[in-house]
Amino acid sequence: MKLTDLTITQAHQGLKKKEFSAIELCKAYLDRIKERDKEIFAFLTINTKKALSQAKKIDDLILQKREIPQLAGIPVAIKDNILVEDLKCTAGSKILGNYIAPYDATVIKKLKEKAAVILGKTNLDEFAMGSSTENSAFGATRNPHDLIRVPGGSSGGSAAAVAANECVYALGSDTGGSIRLPASFCGVVGLKPTYGAVSRYGLIAFASSLDQIGPITKTAQDCKTVFEAIKGKDGLDSTSIETPKIKNLKFKIENLRIGIPKEYFVKGIEPEVEKVIKAAIKKYEEMGARIEEVSLPHTEYANPAYYIISPSEASANLSRYDGIKYGYSTKEAKDLMEIYLKSKGEGFGQEVRRRIMLGTYSLSSGYYEAYYLRAQKVRTLVKEDFKKVFEKVDVLLTPVSPVLPFKIGEKIDDPLSMYLVDVYTVSINLAGLPALSLPCGKAGHLPVGLQIIGKPFEENKILEIGEIFEKTCQR
Amino acid sequence: MISQKEVQHIAKLARLGLTPKEIEKMQKELSSILDYIEKLEEVDISKVEPSSHLIKVENVMREDEKSKKPEAKSQKLLELVPEKKAGYLKVKSITRAFVQQKRRVEKRTQSSL
Fold it and tell me: Which of A152, A310, A348, B91 is the most exposed, having the fewest neighbouring CB atoms within 10 Å of its CB?
């Protein structure tokens, strides 16, 4: 087995048993990036020098026969909207093109405490707004399974890097599906944790009531390892909470009640996707789980509500890029107003501008009640749908996306058709629930992801349900 | 359909400088997105409370003490400022354009007298 094929668990064992050194492991990935990333374009920044010096430190620890944490020496890639001190952090935007992060995000601090080796920063849709990674100001990332297709977005760089073996695992962020969609399109595992389970401190804010950081990995087991490392309450994020301990984690599959929301299998889903998803559900049934059809009646309203709420929050969050404190500042301005107008006008890309406009409109005087307030009320109904269903079943299974990875350029000029790719993922963010994207099969050469939605703070349960599937399929 | 004037007004509120051509494009795109969003009007929300978070969010309190930001940290933040002078952020005048305009108006009024 090649070093670049390893999972976290395998790489950790290899390091412990001295089958290879952390330097060798790190170099293997840096070489792989050099060789493969010209085509994929997953990385915006490569952290060669610091990654190697960090790897050296871990080799010294191993030589001293010291116990090393599971993530020590394991090469990781970080989405470029998460701050890593002294590395460029662009959020995929020209407006932050030269921004050097002045501090570490809490998740990075935690990974560094576990002696992780940070390989670099990955491409994304500008400010995480998009479903294809085509909205990056620095160019589109390509899907490793088919180079003419998109990797999904917005964490497309992170998912593509994992799928192309350019890192062992990666971090992404998910506001309306931005971890799960690219994980599905690239055939890797992605977890969107319960809102508040992971600190958002140091994540460049998009929509604060929806954003969550989560892992993108090769296996569900790896996903659990990373999630355990990054979760927890943080004094620097007042919305973060300590994950309550869930008892009886070891469950019998025969006692598992799985709900299939009928609203997720209606017009709009591609038949190939439906076929693969139905086959995966069948597998759980064969393993002994009880499958029942359930209803989430407000499903069709979740996406329109999302496209009010998230741009509204974004328009407030992005007002900070004013050309004064940091980031791009126009060179030609007569007065302060012109600095604002030109810095934003020249610095933001098309999609970001659209969302700022949409959000400002929804929040503006005379429209607030008709749009924003109405959307927040619909959000309550979406949340209650899930609450009711979870009284009957333990988890829900759905597709991650109604479509297979589409071609680069196919949807970029039609914003609305791009928004519709998110119909199966946004509800989960509106309700704040945890959800896993698990590769469950292929349609031709293109991967299809199964979405496993859990009750609040039951990440470990959905991960375990994912693991059961992986084990059964490997047999 | 949202009017061009409305688009201009919103762009100004957002401090987003758009060219006339961009305004026109934005008008079309926003209109089609707003049409889609209108779907929400089908939902009966008369007895529903709005919600923003899954978990009840509580206030987080801490001691009100002077932050212990080391010199190096503030230096890092200052390095990111586009224009600065003697350790301060430098901004363009808020009033310069306004004053110039006022002067022009005054001159015109004077010359017409």
Answer: B91
